[in-house]
Amino acid sequence: MPFRNNYTGLAGYSHDPDVQPVQAGVLLVNLGTPTAPTARAVRPYLAEFLADPRVIEYPRWLWWLILHGVILRLRPKRSAHAYARIWDIRGSPLRFGSEALATALQTEIARQRPQAPVKVALAMRYGEPSVRQAIEQLQREGVRRLLVLPLYPQYSGTSTGSVLDAVADTIKQLRWPPELRIVNDYHDEPAHIEALARSIERWWAANGRGDKLLLSFHGIPERYLHEGDPYFCQCHATARLLRERLQLDQQQLVVSFQSRVGRERWLHPYTDATVRRLAAEGVRKLDVACPGFAVDCLETLEEIAMQNRDFFIGAGGEALRYIPALNDSPDQVDSLAALVLRHTQGWPEFAADYDAAAHRQQRIQAGQRATAVRAGHE
Fold it and tell me: What is the helix (H) or strand (E) element at residue 233, kind and residue range?
């Protein structure tokens, strides 16, 4: 019986520095998306997502019964209908939007560090390309230093924490893991706040300003907050900084939380209840932005721009206007590039004076010296 290795490596790996390049990598990670807006495609995506113990902290046996006995029998069809409302010829907005952001970030880093052998890649926490697939591909491309950047401005164990789990599960199985750094959050980065403010200001300049601005963040169960998750506080920190930058008072800018599931109490106030309340209080035009989402997706394009628009109008409002996410806008790309360059300080590939040709020559010479030493001992 052949011996089975416990760790994965590169088949046929060459130690020749002239053959094996060395690169640094930046791995962007977003939530994920089904491959098609059909119940058949949505079901395995939801099964992977909702089976994550970081997302649902129930006893595993109990949650397995609920998930497979109820949720996965009913929800895929409803979710598929929602995805179909936002799907276009390019596919899933979260997928192609995230790909566009990764491409733009690669271009910007190359502009600022033209000699740097830096590879920007994209992974999805659920679905494909998976975190494991992306890291293993980067390894095949010679990446020896890796910065992981989850596209969640605010940290939560349900999102960034889950990405860290996936990275750790992959790294611990590699024979030669890369040097690793991780961006925990960027909720209060000045460049990020400025990017959000400019996007809102540009939207107002083009479309006029509504009666109020609502910032809707994705929700999590409230008990996670009491057990130490910083997400709620970081959402309010983002809102406060954005309010100050836009020079709005607490009556002009309102915060709420969307996308709750089940009967458990989640972070509140809830977005659907808030838009109805504001309409009943006489708000005619409501502008909504979602600063917790780097790229537009189901939760912004369908839940906010469609569902909650209908709730608002049904409660007496005139218009709910969704302000798009930053997506691959120059401001977002610039802010993420600055974040990457700060978090990779000390790595030679990111240095402003890095000389790829000289570094490669040094490695070749070192290899030649090592070969000569080995030959002398033979």
Answer: helix 231-246
